[in-house]
Design goal:
247 residues, 2 strands, mainly alpha, globular, single chain
């Protein structure tokens, strides 16, 4: 399992109803997107970070490992906002660029933190079976569940092939490394295709009709948690309104 999934299955919020955590995380996400970057997005992202490392007790290493690729995307996306092109084939520093880049990066990082708050505390296995009650077609949730499962199978295949190549000194030089990577891509494709076909045959033999019945553990929504969440969101909106719109 990935470190984020391990944190979601073993964290102190594991037994809370997914709707509670969705209200909290998605409410903070809405505040980060809809409110002005300062102080709205900063308050939303900071609150999500405090909840992640505080009550949720998610290790900072796990959060940073999960956020490193999105943060790299944010950095590469906001860097072009710092420059402008006043003439063809000529670049210049945009005077309004730093403020615009900071606004965009702030919103993106705050939204990412809010999403990590939900994904690091809520296993996908708790969410997908409950989506039927919201009117989501079973085919959508089944495809999502199978894709989620196939991701782990693909990672296991890549790890197994890489370990086998490393044991045969396949990464000794740059030339052998390139050849090993090419062989790894072909081997992983074959293994993934074979496992997908076996999975399809297994479902067909079990009488798969388009949906899998999954027993969901009953959980009650906590009124104090919901009340605290609503109060927190109202406080962020009120603090932003009092501070006034910025940027």
């Amino acid at each position: 399992m990935f470190a984020l999934d391990v944190a979601a299955h073993t964290g102190p919020w594991r037994l809370r109803h997914p709707a509670e955590k969705a209200l909290l995380a998605l409410g903070l996400l809405a505040c980060a997107v809809a409110l002005p970057p300062w102080p709205g997005a900063v308050l939303s992202g900071g609150t999500a970070a405090v909840l992640l490392f505080g009550p949720a007790r998610v290790p900072p290493v796990v959060v940073l490992r999960a956020a490193r690729v999105p943060l790299l995307f944010v950095a590469t996306s906001t860097a072009p906002l710092l420059v402008t092109m006043p003439a063809p084939a000529r670049l210049a520093v945009d005077p309004a660029g730093p403020a615009l880049a900071a606004q965009t990066a702030g919103r993106a990082v705050a939204a990412l933190t809010c999403l990590l708050l939900f994904s690091a505390t809520t296993p996908l296995s708790d969410v997908l079976p409950r989506l039927h009650r919201l009117g989501i077609p079973p085919a959508v949730t089944e495809v999502a569940a199978l894709t989620y499962r196939m991701v782990f199978l693909l990672v296991d295949s890549v790890r197994a092939v890489r370990e086998a190549q490393a044991a045969r000194l396949g990464f000794r030089t740059w030339r052998t490394a390139y050849a090993s990577l090419a062989g790894q891509a072909g081997a992983v494709f074959v293994r993934a295709f074979s496992r997908a076909r076996r999975l399809e045959e297994g479902l067909a033999l079990r009488g798969y009709t388009g949906s899998l019945a999954v027993q969901v553990e009953p959980r009650r929504v906590s009124p104090p948690f919901v009340a605290a969440t609503v109060g927190l969101l109202v406080a962020i909106v009120a603090a932003t309104a009092v501070a006034g719109p910025r940027w």
